[in-house]
Amino acid sequence: MSVLLGTGLNVSSLSQEYKVSSFEQRLMSEIEFRLERTPVEESDDEVQHDEIPTGKCIAPIFDKKLKHFRVMEGAAVSFTCKVVGIPVPKVYWFKDGKQISKKNEHYKMKREGDGTCALHIATATNDDDGNYTVMAANPQGRISCSGHLIVQTGPVRSRLIPTIHSQRVRSRSLEGEKGEPVEEKFFRPHFLQAPGDLVAHEGRLCRLDCKVSGLPNPDLMWLINGKPVLPDLNHKMLVRENGVHSLLIDPLMQSDAGTYTCIATNKAGQNSFSLELSVVAKEVKKAPVFVEKLQNTGIAEGCPVRLECRVLGMPPPAIYWKKDNDTISASKDRMSMHQDATGYVCLMIQPTRKEDAGWYTVSAKNEAGIVSCTARLDIYAQWHQQIPQPMKKVRPSGSRYAALTGQGLDIMSAFPTMDNSPILFTSTPPEAALESEEL
């Protein structure tokens, strides 16, 4: 704030911003913490919260916070901030934790329709040294910020403080051509164009456009879930010549989903709209990979065989089979192809033939890539089982007959012959004959 003194000096030479110490900052934070949790006297604001808006309600937010000043005794100083919220917040001022009444003529409190609030001290004294806090409140919550004021006493030769004349504040009435005062008009912001609820895809550009009118031209603030959207590499706020305001999000992320609110403010007041932004998750693409590969296999001719593997990918890959570099069609005789959601892949051959032997290749392909693996199938001829020759029998030895006769069995009478000769079982060649074990 620039205030002219009677001597032509600028009060900015007597007032300057400064950074507070960590101790002072901690003290102010303690005051804010206590004020936000204790009852306060009714605000002198004309703002009423009897009727709660039907739209999205947002707790107060500071668009501009109080600063810290060091001034010379007798100089003027103003603490200013800007706060928005839905509904419009009430504002309370405090010095060293005690509420400042609007009836106190030493302080002049002012509030604009755009949310700019000011506490003005025309002539600072040593008693004004301390912490000043502004608190904004609506049914959604409370918020506060503080500024510290240091009043310094000038040297002896500067005791006579020149008379301070207030800066000429821009009048809201202008003189017409005939010298008659003309009322300067302000118009509350009004949205001519506003987006509705939106569904957008992750990783792409998302654009929120709106058009607002008002006098003077409104300032816009974008919020997501009640918190300001800060400009960065992915979030940009633009204003085109035709008055269209845009919030650009590129690329869109899952964290960008939520409730967006745009608040427009000027001296005449504020207006807002809200929308829900839903983000469709981006499809994750992964190239196919074999977790189990084909294995070399050997099988007897005529037996069924399975060539099996397991492959994973996103999206699920398409499967192709080849034998010796020739594509195997799905309708090929004796061959069937199988695939399930777990990635299991199988080529079944039933029954197998000699011509099925060879090199088999399975390929898996999707949008992210392609992968293949190869294995050998060998077909063996069936082994023919030999029919065993009948047992060759010869006459038992005398000792064996004697043993059987001793047990009461008359072998000779059991096999009667004409010449009473022993029975001989012969075979060709004679040297291959063996004594039967059945006797």
Structural class per helix/strand content?
A: mainly beta
Q: Strand share of the residues? A: 35-45%
Number-wise, the strands total 30
Average pLDDT confidence is: 80
Low-confidence runs of at least 5 consecutive residues: 1-13, 156-173, 423-428, 430-439
Number of helices: 3
Terminal CA distance reads 135 Å
Major beta sheet summary:
6 strands, mixed
Structural notes for this entry:
- It contains three helices and 30 strands.
- The protein has helices at residues 22-35, 398-406, 411-414, and strands at 15-17, 58-64, 69-72, 77-86, 90-95, 98-99, 107-111, 116-121, 130-138, 141-152, 173-175, 181-183, 187-193, 198-201, 206-215, 219-224, 227-228, 235-239, 244-249, 258-266, 269-280, 286-292, 297-300, 305-314, 318-323, 326-327, 335-339, 344-349, 358-366, 369-380.
- Residues 1-13, 156-173, 423-428 and 430-439 have low confidence and may be disordered.
- A six-stranded mixed beta sheet has the order 1-3-10-9-5-6, with helices on one face. It has a five-stranded mixed beta sheet with strand order 14-21-20-16-17, with no helix packed on it.
